[in-house]
Amino acid sequence: MTRLELRRTTTGPTTSTIARTGTALQKVDTVLVKTASRCNLNCTYCYVYNLGDDGWKSQPRRMSSEVLQAVIDQVGELSHRQDQALSVVLHGGEPLLLGFEGIERLVEGLKASLREDAGLHIQTNAVLLSNKFIDLFASNDVGISISLDGTADIHDRNRVDRQGRGSYDRVTAAITRLLAHPSGNRLLTGLLAVVDPSSDPVEVYESLKTTGAPSFDFLYRDGNYAHLPFGKAQPESIEFGTWMVRLLEHYLADPSPPRIRVIDDIIRLILGGSGQKEGVGLNEFGIVVIDTDGKITRNDTLKGAYSGGDRFVSEPSIVGGRLREYLNSAEFVEYFNLQIPTSPICQTCPELGVCGGGMPAHRWSEEHGYANPTVFCADQKLLISAARSRLSAAMNGMSFYEVLDRQVSA
Ligand code: SF4
Fold this sequence. Notes:
- By secondary structure, the protein is of the alpha/beta class.
- It has one domain (3-362): Aldolase class I (TIM Barrel), CATH 3.20.20.70.
- The chain has helices at 65-81, 100-113, 131-139, 152-158, 168-180, 184-187, 201-209, 239-253, 261-270, 323-326, 330-337, 344-347, 352-355, 377-395, 400-409; strands spanning 3-6, 18-21, 30-34, 87-91, 119-124, 143-147, 188-194, 215-219, 259-260, 287-290, 296-297.
């Protein structure tokens, strides 16, 4: 088996520093468990339903008892057999559509089968997040991440239900309910917002802050060279980068900021540390998905490249199969290797060590496959360069406020 080894240099690796060794691949950071294939919302930008792949239509609506048990047994076994901790994330569609009994069986089963240091999380739109679910998650230490895009106006523009009604009021009511729970502050790991470049990042930031959540993360809208992300006029344009730079400036000026994972990662990477997030830096992230029918699949964001882009040819299943053994198969290793940026432009880019070439799903073009810079390359260069200049000014003895003052008067 092949293991990729990326060695960092101060300016980011070049082709010659990207090496392969013969060590067995035994690393999974995250197992996404698709407990339900449908969603109670119909967000306009959703990569599952609205980017051309309709594989979800042939999936069972919910995981069966047989699949749930296979997940409990085999993911639990994997956590004990590999040498690093992993996280299990209940995902969908909307994972709570599995229903209370199924979610209860899964989280209690995983809590018992996983190694003690494993993480258990759910990514939810929160519309169905009742007190009964919150009690269950509190008893089983399930971290809750909630999708919220910002102000009511921005959120309701895209995150609508099947009747076209916005979901902001229902989502923020669920966050309030969660934070009123005795374990709410411990359980709410953060808010996940998809960037709408036509919005005002300061308004979005301040609106997310009013919820009391300790941490936010921001995702770019999915897309690639064949299907440009909504809000991006052309690959060279910088709508998302401009938005993120304004967010960065506001974040750095805030005397009581929450954590913003993507910005914190970029700053850590510039300073020579490591990122925690897929999509920046050159860390290897082992992400495996278990679909509702029990099939083991690739990262589901790859659906956005072409129909079936998230599927393995051999269609391995967790039912009756051996998850851990499959992770050492040539097919899985080939998927794992997709993370490595293969575009010559990235391989010689001075920012490769920080940017990492972006997510594979955003690199896709019909002409070169995944061997492109991310379609957000110009945006990332702008953001990284803004972060570098703030850091360099700070290192010259100026506070962030002085930096900002100087900018305003320039
Ligand atoms: S995507 Fe762009 S900024 Fe990122 S490593 Fe590649 S060339 Fe550099």
